[in-house]
Amino acid sequence: MPPAVLILATGILLVAGAEYLLPDVGRWIFSASVLIEPGPGQLVPQQPLGPYAPYLLHVFIHFGFLHIAMNVAILISAGRSVGMAFGTGVKGSAGFLILFFACSVIGAVAQILLHSGEPMVMGGASTGVSGLIAAAGWVMGGWRGMARLALPWIGLNIILAFAGMAFPVPLAWAGHIGGTVAGIILTPIALGLFSEREF
Prior knowledge:
By secondary structure, the protein is mainly α. Helix 1 crosses helix 2, helix 1 packs antiparallel against helix 4 and helix 5 runs antiparallel to helix 7 (173-194). It has helices spanning 3-21, 23-33, 54-57, 65-86, 90-114, 126-166, 173-194; strands at residues 35-37, 120-122.
């Protein structure tokens, strides 16, 4: 398993463990990391690491076991092939992490820009793993492989967006789409710059 994938998965599990075993530490991590968008006229509450840290750190916050399990499963399955394409050394691991967090930040920005205006609290690695879905497709089959994996995922999230108009679903569909689009655009660039392998 690529080291970068293990680092991310371990971080997610450690944060989840802290929330249960060390409640005070868990509450601080949550308040510092969760992405908050207030409703109209409301102020964003102060967060310990400031207002921009959550754009990166939200990937470590999850809402229940199922949320963690789904994101870690995709991280490991898609991340393994992408991580191996980058390589397991320092350069490849750095490239993988840069791609993952770039997709996470862009996904978070998309969620903030496209959310309905209601108060929102967002956490989860799905912004980043959505980018890895696109990246895994690229690794397996270039643009066609990327389209085979990324387009159905984008389509599903568009359906969820329309379904949410009738039946509000607490899923960050815009964050998923933003992360996937970021993965489509950034994966070839990141691999070109950081891969330890020759393609």
